[in-house]
Specification:
This protein is of the alpha+beta class. It has 20 helices and 18 strands. Strands 1, 2, 3, 4, 5, 6, 7, 8 and 9 form a nine-stranded mixed β-sheet that branches. A four-stranded antiparallel β-sheet has the order 12-13-18-17. Strands 14-15-16 form a three-stranded antiparallel β-sheet. The N and C termini lie far apart (about 65 Å).
Length: about 575
C-alpha cells in the first residue's frame, strides 16, 4: 500500500466514525512556549483545557488530522535507519466525546482490519506516585485478543505536556514488525485526563501534583513514515515511497550509489525535506530560534552535498522533487516554490563562501577550547556540531557546556554595548522592537513605530502581498525593518514606497486602537505575522483605512505628527529577506 492510499484510508476510517477532518496547522505553532509544531495535538491544546469549544469550531467532539511536525532533538542521529526530523503525524482526537474503550478499539481495527497488519505487542502504564496503574486499558486489549500487553513506567508511557504546561496522561503504545522483523512503535494513544502546571521534564522528575481535566480527552499520534515502512515491509523509513524519489534524484545528480553512501544520502534527503517545509511555512535561515534550526538543516545538507560532489544548483532539483511529491497535500509548497529555491540558494552561496576559509581556520587549531570554537562559530557561521565533528577527526573535543558559556558572555557584551549606546543609563523602554533611554527618546521611537506600519503596508501595495514582516528594530534615531522579498528593490519601487508613506502622513490619518480576541482580529483583516506570540486578547492598531495590524503599541495619535519619511538604505538581511533603514526628517 503506498503512502497516498494510507493517508486516505486513515482519514476515511475516522470520518466513518464521526470525526471531522481538520487540515494540518503550520509548523510555526500558536503555543509560544514551543518553537515548532512537534505533534498533532498542539493545534488542539485549547480544546482539552476548555479554552475553546470543538462543537462551535468543528461541529464535533472528535477530529482527525494529518499534521506536519518537526522534532530536532535527534538531529545528530539522522543518517541511521530510524531517525528523521520532519514527519507527518496521523492522529485522531476527542475532546470529551469518547474514552479508552473506543480509542483502543479504533486503533486495533485500523491496524488489523484496514491495514491488514499484525500487532506484535502493546504497552500500558504500570502506575507511579502521581497517577494510578492503567488496568482499564490492559483489560480492553485482552478482550480484543491482544495477548502480549506489557506494563511500563512513567518515562515511557506517560505523555507530558507540550510546552511549559498543558494536558497530560497515561498512554498505550502499539508495536508492529518492520522488514527486518524488528518491533517498531507506530502508534501512541494518549489518555489526557490530567493538567500539569510544569514541563514534561519536571513531571518526570517527580514531585508534581496533577489536576483532573474537566473533560477527558483522547490524543493519538502515528508517524506516516513508520506506518508506511511497516505496510511496505521495508527495513527503514528511507526505503519508503516518500523518500525514494529524493534518494533517486541524489543518485542521478552525483552518479554514486545510495548503498555505498547511505548516511550522506539520508541526511540530505531528510534535511532538505524539512527545510522545504519550514521555508514553506515562512521560516528563513538566521542565527536564532526557528531560523537557526533551518540554518543547521541546510548547512548540514550543503556539507554532505559537497562530500558527494553534487553539481552546482543541486538543491534546485531536489526541492522540485520534494514539492512534486507533496504538492497534492500541501499546495502552499508549489505556490512558494520560487521563494523556497531562492532562500536555499542564498544560504548555499553564503555558506560555501565561508566553508573553505572556516575549514582552513579549524585546521590551524591543535588544542581546542570553547573560546576558539565560539570564534569559529561567530566568524564563519559553522554550526556547533559541525565544529565538533571536524575536530573529532583529529581527536580534539569541545565541551558543549563551556561553549554555551561563551555564547552567554557574547550576549552579555552585546547588551552592555546597547545600554552604552543609549547614554549608559540603560533602557527605560525595551519591548524587543522599540528601544529608548529617555522620555524624549520614547516620543521619537513612537513616531518611528507608526511610520513602520505605514511602510509595511506601502511595501505590500508596491511589491505585493507576499511581503511579510520578519522583524523590526526601532530607536529614537531610525527604524530598521526586515521583510520577505526575493530580490533587491529597484530605485523606482523605493520611491513609490516613500511617496505612498508621505502621502498618508500628509493626509493626517487618525491612529485608532481596539482590543479584541485574536481570532476576531484575524477575521477583521488585521495583519499578524508572528504566530504564537500573541495573547488571547490583542490590540489592533488602524491607521485610517490604510493599515491595520495586531500590535502592542505605542503609536502616534495622527500621522501628521511624523514628519517626512525617507528610506536611507535597502539591502539583503538573510536568504529571501530584505532590510530597510529609514528616518523621519
Amino acid at each position: 500500500m503506498n503512502s497516498k492510499e494510507i493517508r486516505q484510508k486513515f482519514l476515511d476510517f475516522f470520518m466513518k466514525q464521526g470525526h471531522k477532518v481538520v487540515p494540518s496547522s503550520s509548523l510555526i505553532p500558536d503555543d509560544p512556549s514551543v518553537l515548532l509544531t512537534t505533534a498533532g495535538m498542539q493545534q488542539f491544546k485549547p480544546y482539552y483545557t476548555g479554552e475553546a469549544d470543538s462543537i462551535k469550531d468543528f461541529g464535533s467532539f472528535n477530529t482527525v488530522s494529518i499534521q506536519k511536525s518537526m522534532r530536532t532533538s535527534d538531529i545528530d542521529e539522522v543518517g541511521d535507519e530510524t531517525h528523521n526530523t520532519f514527519f507527518e503525524m496521523l492522529g485522531n482526537f476527542s475532546f470529551g466525546g469518547y474514552w479508552k474503550k473506543e480509542a483502543i478499539r479504533y486503533a486495533y481495527e485500523f491496524i488489523t482490519k484496514e491495514m491488514g497488519l499484525a500487532i506484535s505487542y502493546v504497552t500500558v502504564f504500570r502506575g507511579s506516585d502521581i497517577a494510578p496503574k492503567d488496568e482499564e486499558s490492559k483489560k480492553i486489549w485482552r478482550l480484543l485478543g491482544v495477548a502480549d500487553v506489557r506494563e511500563e513506567g512513567i518515562n515511557d508511557v506517560f505523555w507530558g505536556p507540550t510546552g511549559n504546561s498543558g494536558p497530560c496522561g497515561p498512554t498505550t503504545e502499539i508495536y508492529c514488525k518492520n522488514g527486518k522483523r524488528r518491533d517498531v512503535e507506530i502508534w501512541n494513544v494518549v489518555f489526557n485526563e490530567f493538567f500539569c502546571d510544569s514541563s514534561r521534564d519536571i513531571l518526570l522528575n517527580g514531585g508534581v501534583k496533577l489536576k483532573q481535566l474537566k473533560k477527558k480527552g483522547i490524543d493519538t499520534g502515528m508517524g506516516l513514515e513508520r506506518l508506511t515502512m511497516i505496510s511496505q515491509n521495508v527495513e527503514n523509513i528511507f526505503d519508503i515511497d516518500l523518500f525514494s524519489p529524493i534518494i533517486k534524484k541524489i543518485e542521478e545528480l552525483c552518479g554514486k550509489s545510495y548503498e555505498d553512501n547511505a548516511k550522506n544520502f539520508r541526511i540530505i534527503a531528510d534535511h532538505m525535506r524539512g527545510s522545504v517545509f519550514l521555508i514553506g511555512d515562512g521560516v528563513l535561515p538566521s542565527n536564532i530560534e526557528r531560523g537557526y534550526i533551518l540554518r543547521r538543516l541546510l548547512r548540514r545538507s550543503i556539507r554532505y552535498a559537497k562530500l558527494l560532489e553534487l553539481p552546482e544548483n543541486w538543491h534546485k532539483e531536489i526541492v522540485k522533487t520534494i514539492i512534486e511529491n507533496y504538492k497534492e497535500y500541501y499546495p502552499e509548497l508549489e505556490q512558494r516554490e520560487g521563494e523556497i529555491i531562492n532562500a536555499i540558494k542564498e544560504e548555499n552561496d553564503k555558506f560555501c563562501k565561508t566553508l573553505e576559509r572556516g575549514l582552513k581556520e579549524l585546521g590551524k587549531i591543535d588544542a581546542v577550547d570553547a573560546e576558539k570554537a565560539f570564534y569559529i562559530f561567530q566568524t564563519y557561521g559553522f554550526p556547533f556540531e559541525m565544529i565538533g565533528e571536524e575536530l573529532k577527526k583529529r581527536k580534539l573535543f569541545i565541551d558543549a557546556k563551556e561553549f554555551q558559556e561563551e555564547f552567554k558572555k557574547h550576549q552579555e557584551k552585546s547588551r552592555a554595548g546597547l545600554e552604552k549606546k543609549f547614554g549608559g543609563h540603560g533602557l527605560i523602554m525595551d519591548t524587543g522592537e522599540l528601544k529608548a533611554g529617555s522620555e524624549e527618546e520614547i516620543k521619537k521611537a513612537t513616531k518611528f513605530h507608526t511610520a513602520t506600519h505605514l511602510m509595511h503596508q506601502a511595501l505590500r501595495v508596491v511589491l505585493g502581498e507576499k511581503v511579510r514582516q520578519m522583524g523590526s528594530d526601532i530607536n529614537a534615531e531610525r527604524l530598521r525593518f526586515d521583510f520577505t522579498f526575493d530580490r533587491k528593490m529597484t530605485p523606482e519601487e523605493i520611491k513609490k514606497v516613500e511617496d505612498l508613506v508621505n502621502e498618508k502622513i500628509t493626509e493626517n490619518l487618525e491612529v485608532r486602537v481596539e482590543e479584541m480576541p485574536y481570532k476576531k482580529a484575524m477575521e477583521s483583516g488585521a495583519l499578524a505575522f508572528f504566530k504564537g506570540k500573541y495573547p488571547e486578547i490583542v490590540k489592533v492598531y488602524s491607521v485610517g483605512k490604510f493599515s491595520k495590524e495586531v500590535c502592542g503599541g505605542p503609536h502616534a495619535s495622527r500621522t501628521v505628527e511624523l514628519g517626512k519619511f525617507k528610506i536611507k538604505k535597502e539591502e539583503s538581511s538573510s536568504a529571501g529577506v530584505r532590510r530597510i533603514r529609514a528616518i523621519l526628517e
